Each structure stands twice: as C-alpha cells, then as structure tokens.
Amino acid sequence: MTEATAFDDLAVAPVPEPTCLEMTGVSKQFGGHQALEDVSISLSPGRVLALCGANGAGKSTLVRILAGAESADAGTIRVHGSEVAISAPQDATRLGLSFIHQELNLVPKFTALQNMAMGADRGGRAGVLDLRALRRKAQQVQDRIGYRVPLDARVEDLAVSDRWMVSLGRSLMRDATIVAMDEPTASFTKEEAERLYGIIDELTADGVGILYISHRLEEVLQVADDVTVLRNGRLVGSFGASELDVASLTHHIVGRDVEGVTHRVTAVDPTQGPELLTVEGLTREPRVRDVSLTLHRGEILGVAGLVGAGRTELARLLIGADPVGSGSMTLDGKPYHPRSPYDAIKAGVALVPEERRSQGLILRNSVSANLGMASLRDPAGKVGTYSPRRAVRIAREAVSRFGIKTSSVHEAVGELSGGNQQKIVVGKYVLAGPQLLILDEPTVGVDVGARSEIYDIIRGLAAGGTSILMISSDFEELAICDRVLVMREGTVTASVPASRATKDHLTALCFGTDSASHEQDPS
Amino acid sequence: MTTTFVDHAAVTATRPASARVWRWFGRYGALLVLAILVVGTSILEPTTFATYDNFINILNQSALSAIIAMGLTFALVTGEFDLSIGNVASLSGVVCLSTMVDKDISIPVALLLAVLIGAVVGLLNGLVVTLMNVNALVATLGIGTVAVGVNYAVAGGTPVGLPDPGSFIQLTLGRFLGIPYPVYMMLGLAAILWFVLNRTVLGQSMQAVGGNPVAAQLSGIRVDRVRVFAFVICGICAALTGILLASRTGSAAVSGGDSYLLAAFAAAFFGSAVLRDGEFHVLGTLVGVITVSVGFNAIALIGLETYWQYLFQGLLLILGVGVGSLARRRAAAA
Question: Range with the lowest mean pLDDT among A42-46, B29-33, B49-53, B320-324?
Fold first, then answer.
C-alpha cells in the first residue's frame, strides 16, 4: 500500500484523512485453528479494495470482525483515522460501516421502502414513522445510484439483483461511508453485473470506500483499485489492481506450497465400473446450469468449487428437495425423478446436509431418535409400528460402528461435540441404506480425529459398493476421492482424476484460470 | 458470565447440586403441584374429598376436556396450532343431535357422521396449512369460523334438544363396574393416542417434524402428510368431545363446545411441563386436565366462590409453564 499518492489530486489538503478504514495486525483463533494471523488491510475513500483468497483463507472472518459479529484476539481497527472498538453490529452501523452479505437480510413481506427504512433510525418524532420523509430520502438514494427499484413492490416479488439493490439502498439510507459487498454478482446476470459496476463508480465518486469480496477474478481486476490477498489466514500482500493479471492473482491466491496428498488406493478402479447415476443437462436457474455427470458404483466422486458455485444447489436437486428446471437423471439405468427427499431415500439416494444443526439434527432429541430418523419406514414397520427397544439396539450398534462418543444413546444430541454430531448425521443416512450417499461439506467444524473417522466411514461405504458424492471446500480432503469434478458458476467445468487432484490445481480450476486443465471434458 | 442473574459465589459453590435440583423441579414440579393439591384438600376436607366416589367423579369431570386436549396435543407436537377445536366440538354435537331428531337417523350412524365431520374439518385445516402454506393460527381460525357458519345453517341458531333422550344420554350417564363410560373412553383413548405418538412411525415422524421440520424433510419424512394427519386426529378428538357434551347435557347449542378451546390449550401447555422438558405429550396433557379438575373439585368442596376457579386455572397455567421453563434455564445456567 505504498501508492497512496494516487489519491491526493488537486486537493490542497494537509492529508486530512488518508484512509477511511484501516485494520492492523488482526488475529483471530477458533479453538486450535488460527483463522487470521496478523492481517492488515487499508481502504481509502473513493476507492475499491478487493479481498481475495480461497475458501477458508479468512476473508469472512475478517469481515465478521469488522461487522461486530466476532471479536478479534489482537489488532486495531481505525475508521476515518480514529481507533474504534466494534463489539456489536450497531457499533459498525454507527461508524458508517455497512455490509451486504450474500444472504440479504431483508424482510420478504415488506416493501422495498420498508426494507430500506429498517434501522435507518430517522423515523420521525416519538417513534412515529415519517413515511413521507423516508420516501424522499429513499428516492434521493436511488437517484444517487442511478437505479430505481419500485419502492412499493414487496421484496419477495423482486428479482434477486433488485433485492440486492434494496440492500444497498438500505446501507446508503444510513449514510454509510464504507460498504462491504460479499460476492455481489453471485446470482447476477452479465447485464446486472455491468450495472453494478456503474453504481460502484457513482459511489466511489462520492467518496464512499468499498470493500469488495469476490471469487471472480476478472471481475475483481475490473472493479477494484487495490487487491489484498489472504491465504490460510495470513496476508499474502496488497497490490495495485493495475499491476496484476488473472494469472498472477491466481498465483498469489493459491501459493506455491503443495502439500503431500494420500490418494485412495483401490484394487479395482471404480471409475471403470458400472454406472449408478447419470445426470444430463440438469438446470435450475440461476445457481445450477446444464450440469452433466456420471457416477459409478463404489466410486467416491468429489465436487470442488468456490462458495456459491452451485454445489449445494446441485445436491438438493439430486434428492428432490428443489424442483428441477430442466434436464434428466437416471439411477441404476432407470429414470430417476425424485419429487421429494422421501422419493430420493426410497430410491436409495440420501444427502448429508451442509448445516448439521439446522438441517441434520433435532438437538433436543436423543441420539437414538436422531439416528433412526431417516429409516423410520424400515423393515419392522408392518403396520408402521415403532419399537423403542429396537431403535435403541440399532442406535447402540451405530454408536460403536461410527465411533460416536456419547454417555448413552438417550443423551440429547445438542450436548455432544460437533464431530460427534456430524457422525450422527452421517450415521443417520448410512442406516437408511443408500446406494448413493451425497455429503455436503461433511467435515466443517469437525475436529481432526472425528474427521478421519468420517473419512473411514466414507471409504468403508464405497468399498461396500455405495457410491459417494462428496462436496467439499477443503480441497485437501478431496484426496480420498477417485475423481473430482470442479464446479464454477453453476456448471461442471472440469473433471480431474485422483492423481491430479491437488489442492493448488483444484483451486486454480475453481477460479477458472488454469491453462493446463481444459483438456479433460466433464464425463 | 457477567450476564448471569444468579449470585456467583453461591452458584459456583453449589453448581452440580443446584443443577440437579432445578432439573428435578423442572420435570416433577407440575406433578408436585398436583400432589400438594390432593394432600392439602384431603386434610381440609377429609370426609368429602378423599373418597373413592369423589375420585371417580373427578375423572368423570375430566373426561371431555381430556379427550379434546389430547387431540390438540397432536397438533402441538408437530409444531402447529388448532384454534378450530372448540367450534368443531360445537358443530359435531349439533350435527349429531339434529340428524337424530330431524332425519331420524340411528344413534351409531349419527355418531359416525359427527366424527366424520371432525375428521373433515381437520383435513381441511391440514390442507390449508400445507398446500396453501397458510399459518396454522390463521388457517384454523378461518376454518373454525366457517364451521360456526355451517353450524348455524344446520341448527338455525337455536339449541337442539332430544325429545326422547334415553339411550343417547346413557353414553355419558351409563356405568360399567360403577365407573362412568366417559372415564373408560378417556383412558382408552389416552392409551391409543399414547401408542400412536410413541409406538408408531407416524408418531415418531410427528415428533421429528415438531422438533426440526427441515431435518425431518431431508430425512425423507413427508412433512406435509404428517401435519395433515395431526390435524385430522385433532379434529376427530374435538368431535368426540362435542358428542359426549351433547349426550351429557341432552342438548346441543351452537356455541356449546367453544369454551373447551382455551381449557384444552391450558391443559396441553401445563402438561408440557410434566415429566418432560417442555415437550407436549399425551400423558402430560392428561395430567394437566386432571390437575385442573382436582382444583375445581377442591374449590367446590371447600365452598369457595366460582371466581376462584378462574383465578386457579390462570395461575396454574402460568406457574406450571413458567416455573418449568425457569427451572430448565437455571439448570442449564448452573
């Protein structure tokens, strides 16, 4: 960040306010994991700073610290030159910091105006909303960014990009001087993205500083003035966007260090075996586009990609949790059109969902109740009876089979550690006896020991003929796969055999910048 | 740690013990209330309260509320509400009596018809909630209001009486081995409903849906179907209560069963604090209803004014649920 000279043009100023946001020496540890170590960033008014890095590089943690959602273990934050403490989201708002997350925090049933007015804190006298003043202000905001969303339309009726604009409008209603945008274009069309770039130009001309987080490197280079790259929680460096190209930026993001990978060794190559699942042109706009893939019996197929690449959405289509837009699937040679997870499990396809606490478990229920949840319809049910004794027996077997550490099968799963909870979610679906088990980020928030036990479960299942589709953002763990697909912007862009599925190669492919990768067609 | 509301030194000194005490209190506090009521009234009124006849009488008084409240428990277990049960009880009583009077239909057929009406209303509730994705409070309020309208259309707004009450009244008045039929019905139904909720796939699915609908759906449970079943069971139980009410009073008024709505909710919520950590269950609801009946009975025997009944019922609900939830929080904090 030595080229601060670009900023002081004709202004006669005695350098009044060189940066609007400065984070220095920020560190943060989660458990034993160092999420951030001595990271510094600096953003000047009227400029766009892009934050780049692979999944888990620490971008989100940094933003969460800035937003007051986490507190840093060490480091200082300066806003407009003065040191500040941000311990709650309100602090960030008061300081003029504003965040537009991927999950827009909008109330769907409110109008665009109501959403923009939320938390604007200038309602009117005695807590009575001054709707006219709010409307005037909202119109000013829209004039400023040169884009209009119908103010009286309900947000749930708006297109995704318009919702995003409402979110931005809300930030500006609060007179934000620093706006952080997390993957703004993830569900935008090309035209919508172009429009966003125009709006960013308007904002920076007004002196707003923008923190821009995106995985799309071409976009980053087009929009940003400065680029700060993080890798494994450390600062790689800060660069002027003009001195970078996609190749050099990728190099900074991926780094040189290649770690040793232990590949799966199988006597028979399952990728040559009989096909279990074929997917042809599967599409559900905007997140899944024309996905085709083939999965063999007993194969472990990995799916790599960046957050927002459409992997979770693809998994949900495979189990019928969302309706398919177009495309077809066959399972074991027969047409497969699940209309609900019930259909999928009946056909032998199960998904271990991404969010174990909200999607996988009933936290207050017992270990045995949770383990039995996906196989309630299993053999014993002649008239649909449920035998607690049988459930407990099955649960006890599962507890020892999967190495779940619990004082008893009657204990509430909410009391267990993350790793044991995850083993229960995996176990629950294994007990349903699937031919195809899809796992979405199976080891997130799981300690090292439990992690390797989960890998053992997965390998054991594959050895027994179950096919595995494993979505992971931890590319090192994809080493257990026979083959890895790379998804980018909703579609499969590469298929990599185990021997070449190294972390840096996959990361490069995820950014779509590896020259040596495109010879392999997705199969 | 600075936000805890309990004195620090005291907590750290007695942490494990106090946690155990609070946990115990959370689970058994409601039963303790019942025990205190029984013992206290037995001492105050030994000759009238603590007798076999009065015991049977209390159970008999509980039967109608218990049946409708146990049905409601199913809706609550799946995480839904049903505000139409009072209206359904009224409607089923009116339909039952007016078909017997006007159409000269035999008792069994009239009973079946009334139960069927309860099932249909429950089905409608369930379909509106699942297919139209309407909040259960709104859906059942709407369907319940429609039921009131149908009720007026059937009865013309005037109470229906039986010219020849005889055998229909025997339904509630009759006794077997000295115990009134409604007591058997209440206990029999409690056993059946307990079995459905705890020993069938459907019941397990209901509990899963109530616990975490997203996890339940991803586990292959047909969440919507399960919800509809819960509403149907709820409707059938409400209809049964309506029939028994008509039998007991020998007539059916358009709003005869309405008062059961709040009583059923009160009992089910009180019951959620019985033996479990705030989960709805059949046995708890039954205990809830009986506790209220014991209280009413005691108030009558001691000779207190009627308004004490309301004070008692209201306070009981607040204490039962409030103390239970407070105790759980303390147990977790300690």
Answer: B320-324
The pLDDT value recorded for residue B115 is 94
Min Cα distance B274 → chain A (Å) is 16
> A200 phi and psi, to 5 degrees?
-60, -40
Q: Establish if B257 belongs to a structural domain.
A: yes
Number of C-alpha atoms within 13 angstroms, CB side, residue A99? 21
Q: A340 at the B interface (CB within 8 A)?
A: yes
Confidence of residue A4 (pLDDT cuts 50, 70, 90): very low
User: What is the model's pLDDT at position A339?
Assistant: 93
Is B289 part of any domain? yes
Please indicate, yes or no, whether residues A455 and A478 belong to a single structural domain of this protein. Answer: yes
Q: Is the pLDDT of residue A246 over 90?
A: no
Decide if B220 and A342 are in contact by the 8 Å CB cutoff: yes
Tens digits of per-residue pLDDT, B234-249?
999 999 999 999 988 8
Nearest-neighbour CA in chain A from B321: distance (Å): 18
Chain A residues with beta carbon closer than 8 angstroms to that of B212: 358-359, 361-363
CB spacing of B218 vs A428 below 8 angstroms = no
Q: Are residues A343 and A391 in the same domain?
A: no
Residue B211: closest CA among chain A residues belongs to which residue?
A: A362
Whether residue B21 is contained in a domain is answered as yes
Instruction: Measure CB to CB from residue B200 to each of A342, A363, A384 and give the nearest one.
Output: A384
Residues A427 and A439 in one domain: no
Q: Would you state the structure tokens that stand for residue B75, as one six-digit string?
A: 């809706």
Residue A159 CB partners (closer than 8 Å, separation 6+): none
Cβ-contact A300, A462 below 8 angstroms: yes
How far is Cα B140 from Cα B228, in angstroms, rounded to an integer? 12
A112 in Cβ contact with A155 (< 8 Å) = yes
Q: Is residue A113 part of a domain?
A: yes
Q: Is the pLDDT of residue A121 over 80?
A: no
Give the mean model confidence (pLDDT) for residues A62-87: 87
Q: Please report residues of A whose CB lies closer than 8 A to that of B198.
A: 386, 388
Q: Report which of B30, B13, B12 is spatially closest to residue B281, judged by C-alpha positions.
A: B30
At residue A521, what are phi and psi to the nearest 5 degrees? Answer: -80, 145
Instruction: From chain B, pick out residues whose CB is under 8 angstroms from the CB of A312.
Output: none
A30 contact B CB<8A: no
Which residue is associated with the tokens 């159409």? B103
**B221 contact residues in A (CB cutoff 8 A):** 342, 373, 376
CA distance A415 to chain B (A): 11
Number of domains chain B contains? 1
Q: Is the pLDDT of residue B11 over 50?
A: no
Cβ of residue A317 closer than 8 Å to a chain B Cβ: no
A204-213, A304-313, B98-107, B284-293: least confident range:
B98-107
Q: Which residue of B has its CA nearest to A361?
A: B215
What is the CATH classification number for the domain harbouring B25? 1.10.3470
A132 and A224 both lie in a single domain = yes
The interface pTM score, or ipTM, of the predicted complex is: 0.79
Among A204, A239, A254, the domain boundary falls at A254
Domain that holds residue A405: 361-432
User: A369 CA to chain B: closest CA distance, Å?
Assistant: 8
Let me know if residue B131 belongs to a domain: yes
Structural domain count, chain A: 3
> Among residues of chain B, what percentage have pLDDT more than 90?
42
Contact B200 A385 (CB under 8 A): yes
Q: Which of B51, B261, B277, B50 is nearest to B145 (CA)?
A: B261
Sequence-ordered list of residues with C-beta below 8 angstroms from that of A378, at least 6 positions apart, any chain: A432
In a mutational test of the A interface, the residue from B130, B219, B222, B328 whose CB has the highest number of chain A CBs within 10 Å is: B219
Alpha helices in B78-134 (DSSP H): 85-102, 107-130
pLDDT digits (tens, 9 = 90+) for A132-191: 888 888 888 888 877 788 888 888 888 778 888 888 888 888 888 899 998 887 767 777
On whether both A134 and A70 belong to a single domain, the answer is yes
Closest-CA distance, B113 to chain A, in angstroms, reads 26
Greater confidence, A81 or B144? B144
**DSSP three-state, residue A277:** strand
Q: Do A118 and A164 have their domain in common?
A: yes
pLDDT at A509 over 80: yes
Q: Among residues A401, A432, A463, which one ends one of the domains?
A: A432
